[in-house]
């Protein structure tokens, strides 16, 4: 909308600007209505719907025209109603899908840190942002510099003049995607939905297998994910089928990003959404997913059994021969998994290995603090519980 308004102000489109809403709307009806009310067209008798649309394009006023189709969900459904191949018609489609080579695509990613802060300043005011700069940076990070998220939060803060940014962050941390600031659409926004509702529209388009993959991905950290690790969690699914679920289901709907060959990552808000969907399932689903993921990750970690009976994890393979350092990539996911395990009280050998891995990783990199000791203590505690269970089985 901002682009369209700026172009109209510059008089780049003397033939006009036609905005059409594609999701769950009749495109042909909108085109005909626009032509009647804005251009004053009348139609010859006997024209069917397609004929009326064609007549509109053929009798449009002179000059270049900008036609925007907002939130396209199926390209095949709108293609018959697009303007003819005439240089005066410029067509812009917005979509969450990867339409492919049939149209020239411009992918809009999240903003960089500087641009994200600048957007907040335009919505909230420079003085308010600069006086709470560190909190403002944290707020941008909470939504991963996503433009829609920033606009929703900025407009919300603009109406809450007595709210500090710190209070906004606290509300987000406690309410997550249910926070009012991420649900309610403010007046003046071209987006018709809040963040959660927009994600829900993409979710309902996924089939069961794609939703299951999404739920598992929600258990990973906000960090690059090696796809081989995901494949290990779905040993009952053919790798080609799993790639189809990822590419056709998630990637084409911008629910997952490709960071490199065999490397993918979730946006923070998408991860929160997937976690909420997993939590809404039966408890045994979360338990099952976590066991699979912990087992697969622990199997990627080489370890040696020392004389003292403590698992000592070898970090020799952390010397990367490429862009990605293996242990550095696995570390944040190990942290995320043990946090999930603690919540649902999962005690297993893979969790035992992961706690040791976390502590060894930090020690080898000369991190200081309580995290190293906590990792080893957690591992010892789990080891003792596993030993006790083993003894009880033997006695039983």
What does this structure look like?
- With 396 residues, the chain is mainly alpha-helical.
- The chain has four domains: 94 residues, Barnase, Chain D; 83 residues; 77 residues, Arc Repressor Mutant, subunit A, CATH 1.10.10.10; 112 residues, no CATH class.
- It is 55% helix and 9% strand.
- The chain is built from 19 helices and eight strands.
- The strands form three sheets. Strands 1-2-3 form a three-stranded parallel β-sheet, covered by helices on one side.
- Helix 12 crosses helix 14, helix 13 packs across helix 16 and helix 17 packs across helix 18.
- It is elongated.
Series of secondary-structure elements, N-terminal to C-terminal? HEHHEHEHHHHHHHHEHHEEHHEEHHH
Q: If you average the pLDDT, what whole number results?
A: 81
> What structural class do the secondary elements suggest?
mainly alpha
Which oligomerization state do the chains in this entry correspond to? single chain
Question: How many domains make up the coordinates?
Answer: 4
Which range does the strand content fall in?
Answer: 5-15%
Total helical elements: 19
Largest sheet: 3 strands, parallel
User: C-alpha Rg, in Å?
Assistant: 26 Å
Give the overall silhouette.
elongated
Number of beta strands = 8
Low-confidence runs: 304-323
Distance between the termini: 71 Å
Helix content bin:
55-70%
Strand order of the largest sheet: 1-2-3
